[in-house]
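Tokens as discussed.
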């Protein structure tokens, strides 16, 4: 067996199951699960129809690069969304089976273990795939704490020169999970300068990019930032997904775009990996990327929930509105794990302890004392959960 498997941590939701073992939730309440970032809004009917109409494609093997209509739909969306020049859909875009598998596979293709122990930099807290991808690629994860005192930004200044010298890949997430922090142009300028100086690749996870609150102020993307700074996409690859944007998490559909030379090698890796997208899913994905009306409506639903629920939570929890995404990152009174247990026991509301989303680094676990609240359930359920939290003895 791969010895690096022993380095993997249990997934946060396995830890949550263990935390709740033996705990009996208050049966006076129906359960409300706000722990997992799984969209619950209805999948648009036209996407289901396109999926059904695409079933004829099951009689053919799909290509790893995907079909032209899908890549064109993605390319057109990128141009519309980010106001950037049209990408070469033959070389600068690769469809993937959701951003999760691509974020993992990317490290396996990029990390070069023939050099001194490679480093993969990650924000902390983080999406656990970053860590697992680094470890199984034979690299050493290095965590940059994102804390309230620093506006939840990645603090590059504290990274030792020796670590930068070994860095081959850096994951960034904007809008961030779990904080909702959006990187601005100065943040990108700093990240690009470091990548130029040390020659590492930036993997920009943008799966929450379409969940934001001001229709006139969409989050800045990596490719967009590069264009605004007058640079090309060298050592830059972005990852996007339909799961949150179009409420199709079960479809497993996304794409990567950016550096031509890197994507050429990544495509070669994926050809051997055997991960071509289902033809019916390609048809449904093209339909989804070509439509924006359902995305605007999706944002309206989240905006309505945040406006109604956040003031209620703020009466008892220390939190601020995120820049984007669908999480509240709330400070607890005391232990985040004990808070989650008590909330489950007393209120039958499930939230995720922040410490499960982070690692202790530089003397602190930056997720400790926080919980992540995913506002993915219906408005009524979220309101009900907020009212229960207000009344919870754990908070009094």
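Sequence:
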């Amino acid at each position: 067996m791969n010895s690096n498997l022993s380095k993997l941590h249990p997934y946060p939701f396995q830890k949550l199951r263990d935390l709740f073992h033996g705990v009996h939730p208050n049966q006076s309440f129906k359960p409300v699960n706000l722990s997992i970032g799984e969209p619950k809004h209805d999948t648009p009917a036209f996407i289901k129809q396109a999926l059904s109409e695409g079933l004829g494609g099951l009689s053919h093997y799909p290509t790893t690069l995907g079909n032209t209509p899908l890549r064109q739909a993605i390319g057109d969306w990128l141009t519309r969304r980010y106001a950037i020049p049209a990408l070469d859909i033959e070389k600068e875009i690769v469809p993937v089976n959701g951003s999760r598998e691509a974020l993992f596979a990317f490290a396996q293709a990029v990390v070069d273990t023939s050099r001194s122990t490679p480093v993969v930099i990650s924000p902390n807290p983080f999406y656990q795939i970053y860590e697992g991808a680094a470890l199984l690629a034979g690299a050493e994860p290095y965590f940059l704490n994102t804390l309230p005192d620093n506006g939840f930004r990645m603090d590059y200044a504290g990274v030792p020169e020796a670590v930068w010298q070994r860095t081959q890949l850096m994951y960034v997430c904007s809008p961030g999970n779990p904080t909702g922090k959006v990187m601005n142009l100065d943040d990108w300028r700093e990240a690009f300068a470091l990548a130029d100086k040390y020659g590492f690749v930036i993997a920009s996870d943008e799966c929450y990019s379409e969940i934001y609150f001001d229709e006139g102020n969409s989050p800045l993307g990596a490719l967009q930032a590069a264009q605004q700074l007058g640079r090309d996409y060298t050592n830059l690859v972005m990852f996007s997904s339909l799961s949150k944007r179009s409420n199709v998490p079960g479809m497993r559909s996304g794409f990567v775009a950016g550096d031509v030379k890197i994507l050429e090698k990544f495509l070669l890796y994926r050809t051997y990996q055997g991960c071509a997208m289902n033809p019916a899913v390609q048809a449904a994905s093209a339909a989804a990327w070509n439509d924006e009306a359902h995305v605007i409506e999706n944002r309206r639903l989240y905006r309505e929930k945040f406006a109604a629920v956040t003031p209620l939570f703020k009466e008892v929890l220390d939190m601020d509105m995120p820049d984007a995404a669908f999480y509240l990152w709330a400070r607890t009174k005391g232990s985040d794990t004990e808070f989650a247990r008590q909330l489950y026991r007393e209120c039958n509301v499930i939230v995720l302890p922040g410490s499960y989303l982070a690692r202790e680094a530089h003397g602190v676990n930056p997720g400790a004392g926080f919980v992540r609240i995913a506002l993915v359930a219906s408005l009524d359920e979220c309101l009900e959960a907020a009212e229960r939290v207000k009344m919870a003895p754990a908070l009094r």
